[in-house]
Amino acid sequence: MKPRRRLAVQFPTLVLARRNLSRATARTVLAVVAIVIGVVAIGAIGTGGEAFKQDQLEAYEGFGGTATVDPVFYPEAGGDPDTTFTDAEIGRMRRASGGATVLPVVEPAGSFVRSPSGDPLLTVQVRGLGNPGAFYDAQAGEIPANWRRSVIVGSRVAADNDIQPGDRMTVLVNGEFERSFRVAAVLEPQGFADPLSADQAVFVPLAQFDDAEYGRAIVRVDPQVRSIDAAAAGIEAEFNDRRRTVDVSTVQDQRQQFEQFFATVNQFLIGIGAISLLVAAVTIANTMLMSAIEREGEIGVFRAVGYPKRAVVSLLVAEATILGLVGAAIGAPVALGIGAVVNQLLVGDPLAFTDAGLRYVGLGVGFGIVTALVAGIYPAWKAANRPPVEVLG
User: Fold this and answer.
1) Which of 133, 92, 383 has its CA nearest to residue 235?
2) How far is CA 103 from CA 72, 160, 223, 255, 256, in A?
3) pLDDT tens digit string along 46-91?
């Protein structure tokens, strides 16, 4: 027995469904295309979104044991706002954190930087820091152990302005100084998660400030040895006993907030993609209704010779399900192909699919098949419940 005949004997409903779909090629193709679009929308948005999220989360690597401490200002209190820390308060932070590294940071307003060629660097930020070697590593040059008379340059500043260790830059801070400094080192790239935005900064020794006002402090521990949460809790307990005077934020908390925010955005975009599957459901329902109307006579004969209602429903639902299966089978590889392109653009590896990203492709496939199946139920039910006498009359 030939394979097609054997298949017809074992699965007659599927063979009839395939034959019926082939009789209306244009409608069948349009219905399949609608499913493909829906599957690709969900799968590609999911895989691309996950790749982008992973790319962004990598920026938090290396900051797991880091927290920032900022003073809290109450505008309703009036008077001269105290938005800086004193040396005594920095000392209390060091004691309360249980020996963590606490670096006070000066963020002077009205600062200005000129490149070695004298060009103004308008977007560069000037920061005063006591010991950048405790927080950063040098990409070029060396961070001096006793750092007092040179500057440390962020990677983006150095790359955009062709600055090398040994060059000289001019730094102006209103009310403090205007001096030429030798560049001691260029820092390694830090990414956007760096609390000091070092890539776009020039660091000046605290010794250059006659009256340093610390706008914030950086707390750091070795996460393999100690917990940054414990250090943060110690500082909170020391300063916020009666009233909240400092805000302690760990980079890990910021990472979790970013991850939650991105998950919400991704779900929203996937919801938009799912709308295309709703359109596909309408298209398939319309296709099946048109098919049922055109085949009223055929279905009436089936019913007149004893073909049960359930068999008619099974036949039309099988046709709709085939549309969903074919659409999903085409849509899944297309979604993976688009995801590979996005992976190449974002992380440089077209095969860098995450488990979460692949789950979105599976979700698109599942939704595509279920949508087609559900869309075929009403036309099938309607066709099966028309009396044969009415149809044939």
Assistant:
1) 92
2) 18, 28, 17, 21, 24
3) 888 888 887 777 777 777 788 999 998 777 666 666 678 999 999 9
